[in-house]
Amino acid sequence: MLINFENLFLIVLGLVWIVGAVFQDMKRREVDNLWNFSLIGFALVYRLVISVWGWNYWFVLNGLIGLGVFFILGNLFYYSRMFAGGDAKLLMALGVILPLSFNWLINLKIFGYFILMFLAGGSVYALIYSFFLVIVNWKIFSKEFLRQWGKYEKMFLISLVFVLLWGVFVFFISQIRFILIGLVILLFPVLFIFAKSVEESCLVKSVSAEKVTQGDWLYKDIFIKGRKIKLDWQGVSRRELGMIKKSKKKILIKYGIPFTPSFLLGFVGLLFLMWKFWWVF
Fold first, then answer.
1. In contact, 253 and 217? CB cutoff 8 Å
2. At 119, which CATH number?
């Protein structure tokens, strides 16, 4: 039984911290480092207390191993530019929560299903959020979509030619179900152009210097008193932030879609699987 009394506290702790991270991310587009690190601290202290009480060091050791596994995953996602720093640290913190079994084959299944639910739920959430942004910013989005379509039209035409050839191939081998592959290939450039249009029209904002925060992504290189601050995927550094705030200029900042709701979807989805399909684990 994975959801026992000891694990129930960890699950509630994880849910509370994820919900708190979602509120921070939605309000300020960042999650405090202290918030993520405090989850690591509380979860490890709890595991240590239970280990001492029950004379079983594996309960706290499992948390440390989970932290190590998710530290690697968090850095992998961060340096592949899928995550911002706060998202990576929240993932690391959940590594202390998720080892809910003393059997590490089961723990690996838990990790795998969480990542699967996280990515699937995150993809659906990001698509819905993007459509919401499009509705709110329809005028500027429609203009940007036409501009991006003109820029990447050749990509769509190449895909269309490939799909037509693929359709002929499928017809000759009499395997109509394979036509879905062609439709996916045709859909890819449309989704790519859609995503680029959302990014350029809905996620770029002009903000005053005092509202820029460390880690914000510049839309393009800027010059302040003859000094160049380069666009960097790691965001604005502390030194650069000081220069920007002193300039009192309007700065173009590129915001990402708040990604912490994906953690909540992944965590809740995992709990649903453990409750409804417990035999899988």
1. yes
2. 1.20.120
How many domains does the chain divide into? 3
End-to-end alpha carbon distance in the chain: 10
- Domain boundaries, position 168: 134-202
Residues 9 and 128 in one domain: yes
Give me the DSSP letters along 131-188. Answer: HHHHHHTHHHHHHHHHHHHHHHHHHHHHHHHHHHHHHHHHHHHT-GGGHHHHHHHHHH
Return the pLDDT at 177: 67
Cα 213 vs. chain centroid, distance in angstroms? Answer: 20
Residues 273, 12: Cα–Cα separation, whole Å: 16
Of the CA atoms within 13 Å of residue 127, those in its CB half-sphere come to 8
Provide the whole-model pTM: 0.79
pLDDT value at 19 more than 70: yes
